[in-house]
Structures are given as C-alpha cells and as structure tokens.
Write a structure and sequence with these properties.
The chain is an alpha/beta fold. The protein has helices at about 15-30, 45-50, 65-80, 100-130, 150-170, 205-215, 225-235, 250-270, 270-275; strands spanning about 10, 30-35, 55-60, 85, 95, 135-140, 175-180, 195, 245. It has nine helices and nine strands. Keywords: Oxidoreductase.
Length: about 280
C-alpha cells in the first residue's frame, strides 16, 4: 500500500450520500476536504466539528467552465495543492427514452458528464505541475449494465467511464478510479429525489417496475455508503489500484454477467466480424 501525507480533497455532492461518506472517511484519515455542494447548510455541523479540516463550498457542477476552473484554482491557491478530486454529485432519473424530455436529457448529461469533465480538466494542470493526483469518478453499475427506464442515466455513466478510461491513457501521472456502485442506501431513492419523466402507458410493462423500485425501494438497498467510502480510500492507496471498482455484490454479479454475454457474442459472431477486413493483394 502507498503511504500518503495529509491530502487535500475536493469532493462534489458532499452534503449527502456517497459524497458525505467520502468526506467523513477522508477527514477521519487525516486529510482536508473542500466539501462542495449546491446547498452547504447540511455541512455546517461537520465543518464545526472539524474546523480547518472540512471547508464547505457552494458549487453547482453544472456552472460554466470558467466558474468550475476558478473553484479548483482557488482550492489550490488556498491549500497549496489538490491531491484528490472526487466527482460525486449526481441524481437518479427514470424514464424510457421516448418519455424523457430534451431538458431532462441535457440536464443529466450536464450533471453527470460535462460537469465532471470540466472539473477534471481544471485539475489536470495542477496534477501535472505536482507530478501526481487522483480523480475519483462516481459512476454506477449502470455504467455497464442497462436497465429499462435507466437508459439516459446509464448513458451518462457510460460516457463518463469512457472519458475517464481515455484520460487515464493520456495522463499516466494521474490515478483515475471509476467507482461503480450497485444499490446503496443513499438519498438517491428518497421521496422526491429522483427525476421521474411523465409515464406513458406503452412503457408500463418495461419501465414500470423500475419506476416502482425507485419510488418505493428506499431503505431496501443492500449497500452501506460508509463501507463504500472505506473501500474507495483503501483502493486509492493500493499500488495496484484498478481503473474500475464495482461496489456491492449486485454490481459484481451484474457486470460479470454482462461481460459473459459480450464474450459469448464475440465468439459466436467472430467469423462475421472479421470477414470485413480488406483482401490483400
């Protein structure tokens, strides 16, 4: 395991859920966290209990690029460095593609893809100057496993994963960690938290069960956010850290099944797939 001195984190979505759990775990490990959220009131007690170690920051990750860059630069100016950027802010959205409005589609991509991309881009010059840094991207099992009604949500997470995998190839001095949780007891499923597209009766059979799970399943999720935060910190410190970290038995089972399906299709259709190369000569 790699030993780190006290680190400086910037965590988005820090007021609740995974963001709150990561903030608390990092502070418990001796680190300093700039805890970003749209509304910072929920962070007041934590900041008061950890003066100088938790700094609430009002930040909307869908803000213009200049504002996000300024926020990252300000963290570095005040602390002298930034060691870990954790892009955690997010929400659940349920709707078949036909049910999803243009505004819902664009808003979720801004929150889950554009915002994290711009914050990561803003952090990279500082990491390059330091010669080190880490980015934690909060994806989901939905970044690899699709479920009816979660199409747009899954698409945003898949896009974030592809962007991050490419960035890891471009920036070997930076450690990237894509976290893929299954169902955890965060606030994503609490009443009113999810964006629910207006339902169409044509999709009741396919999307209806997902909508019912999201609106009625809070408190039944098997995952523990505090254990997830501990796992993230453990993997970040590992010398052989993976790029992707599924969390929860449901995530591991679902991803393994998907990979098996992909491998089987590759084997079954390999002759057709490879028949398209040009004939030489």
């Amino acid at each position: 395991m790699t030993s780190f001195p006290s680190r400086v984190w910037l965590v988005t979505g820090a007021s609740s859920g995974f963001g709150r759990a990561i903030t608390e775990a990092a502070v418990a490990a001796g680190d300093t966290v700039v805890a970003a959220a749209r509304r910072t009131g929920a962070l007041a007690a934590l900041a008061d209990a950890r003066p100088g170690r938790v700094e609430p920051l009002a930040l909307d990750v869908t803000a213009p690029a200049a504002d996000l860059t300024a926020a990252v630069d300000d963290v570095v100016a005040r602390h002298g460095r930034l060691d870990v950027l954790a892009n955690v802010a997010g929400r659940t959205q349920v709707g078949a593609l036909e049910e999803t409005t243009e505004d819902e589609l664009r808003a979720l991509f801004d929150l889950h893809v554009t915002g994290p991309a711009l914050l990561t881009r803003a952090a990279l010059p500082h990491f390059r100057r330091q010669g080190s840094g880490a980015v934690v991207q909060m994806s989901s099992v939905g970044g690899q496993v699709c479920v009816p009604g979660f199409g747009v949500y899954c698409a945003t997470k898949a896009a974030l994963e592809a962007l991050t995998e490419t960035a890891a190839l471009e920036c070997p001095h930076v450690r990237f960690l894509v976290v893929e949780p299954g169902a955890f007891r965060t606030e994503l499923f609490r009443p009113g938290a999810a964006v629910l597209s207006a339902p169409m009766p044509e999709y009741e059979a396919t999307v209806g069960p997902t909508r019912a799970f999201v609106t009625g399943g809070d408190g039944t999720q098997p995952g523990d956010p505090d254990k997830a935060a501990a796992a993230i910190l453990r993997v970040l410190a590992a010398d052989d850290a993976p790029l992707r970290l599924p969390l929860g038995a449901d995530a591991v089972t679902g991803i393994r099944a998907r990979l098996g399906t992909i491998a089987a299709d590759l084997d079954r259709w390999e002759e057709v797939s490879t028949s398209t190369d040009r004939d030489e000569g």
